[in-house]
Q: What sequence folds into this?
């Protein structure tokens, strides 16, 4: 039995990411740069591919793709990475490494700022699911990482959750003052 079936939160990932029926039709929707040939090469294989059709082999061949994805493609293909990492760690662990490197390096403000906008696509629920994936899934992909790398990634994700809570709380205060608090989902 694969870890996808054993990890009880994968169905929550599918529901919460809400990308059941979306796939990109054009390269410029997937790639973050109009001028980088390497970015075109890495991302072009994902055009027209629904996230459920992404295979561990595709991540093996294009393991640095998360460095080149557009913000929305980065978000949309995250469930595919989670699923592939739990199905075939051998083929997808380098893509997981690239994904985790996109959390940025607290030592490098430039890198952190470059990737910051991608993480704004993720709600508090999404970020907590990513933390659970790293901390609780028991996926075989974890054997490719030092525990310190996983802890650093979880720490950074927790910081993103904290900042998202701060933004949400400020917005709620503002919304309640202005009287339009209806329609804000709890914990989103």
A:
């Amino acid at each position: 039995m694969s870890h996808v079936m054993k990890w009880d939160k994968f169905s929550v990932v599918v529901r919460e990411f809400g990308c059941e029926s979306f796939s990109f039709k054009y390269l410029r929707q997937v790639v973050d740069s109009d001028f980088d040939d390497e970015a075109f090469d890495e991302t072009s294989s994902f055009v027209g591919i629904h996230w459920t059709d992404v295979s561990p082999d595709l991540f093996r061949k294009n393991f640095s793709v998360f460095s080149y994805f557009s913000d929305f493609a980065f978000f949309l293909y995250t469930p595919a990475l989670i699923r592939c990492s739990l199905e075939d760690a051998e083929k997808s662990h380098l893509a997981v490494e690239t994904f985790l490197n996109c959390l940025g390096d607290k030592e490098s403000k430039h890198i952190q700022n470059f990737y910051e906008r991608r993480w704004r696509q993720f709600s508090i629920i999404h970020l907590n699911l990513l933390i659970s994936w790293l901390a609780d899934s028991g996926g075989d992909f974890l054997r490719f990482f030092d525990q310190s790398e996983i802890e650093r990634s979880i720490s950074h994700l927790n910081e993103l959750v904290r900042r998202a809570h701060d933004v949400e709380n400020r917005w709620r205060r503002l919304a309640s003052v202005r009287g339009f608090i209806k329609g804000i989902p709890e914990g989103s």
